[in-house]
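Batch job 17 of 40 flagged for manual review because the log was empty.
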Amino acid sequence: MKNKIFMPLIIITIISMCSFIINGCKTAEEETLTIENGTASGITLISVEEVFDVIENNEDYFILDVRTQEEYDEGHIEGAMNIPVDKLENRLDELPEDKPIIVYCRSGIRSNNASNILIENGFTRVYDMDGGILEWIDKGYPVVLYGETTAEGENSSEVISISVDDSYEHYGDEDYIFLDVRSLSEYESGHIEGALHIPVSELEDRLDELTKDKHIIAYCNGSGCERSGRAAIILVNNGFSHVYDMAGLGVIEWEQKGYPIEK
């Protein structure tokens, strides 16, 4: 008799647990959809492609760069405001409460921290750019650098991020100079055939080896290497107007694709 009573109890318990799990999963799914539809407060990941479309379409978003001032000066998204993440809580009054805010950093860690700070302080529409400025550059989207400011404060210069494939399209063009800004040992271990070698640490003292009427493509070892970006800034700040920073994996990707390498 005990067994006959015990078995139905087990069945009822299992059914109840399944119902709880199903309802719990449904609730989580509905909550996710609500956040994705923008009707609830929370952090939403946004791709670099979506951010680029926002800028291209002049949509009313506020873009926040939470890297250091030095990183910001090395290259940032057009129109972005710089507030380092460690200063954000003390400068929240500089942010609009009536606009969606897109937050980005170098790769995504600091932007996530900054996004949480914004949410905790009552900002309801916060977007964290997935992949950060590195992903942005890898996609070939432009970054802006501010050079020496004129008295009116209107002078700005732009470094164009260029993919390895697009760089190769200009290989052999007399109007283009490939500039390797790595160390001598790196250069000798393998460089783009015909590239001019000037380490970034020596560039300011050797600008007379370059000509301002040429397009200059600076490169190093790719997205983890920031020397080509620094070199591009130096060139822009010294009056070079056609400056490109090779994105992707730089010379490593160039060699992987089978493009001309000299050792």
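Reviewer: the log was empty due to a logging misconfiguration, but the result itself is present. The first strand starts at residue 42 and ends at 46. Unflagging and moving on to job 18.
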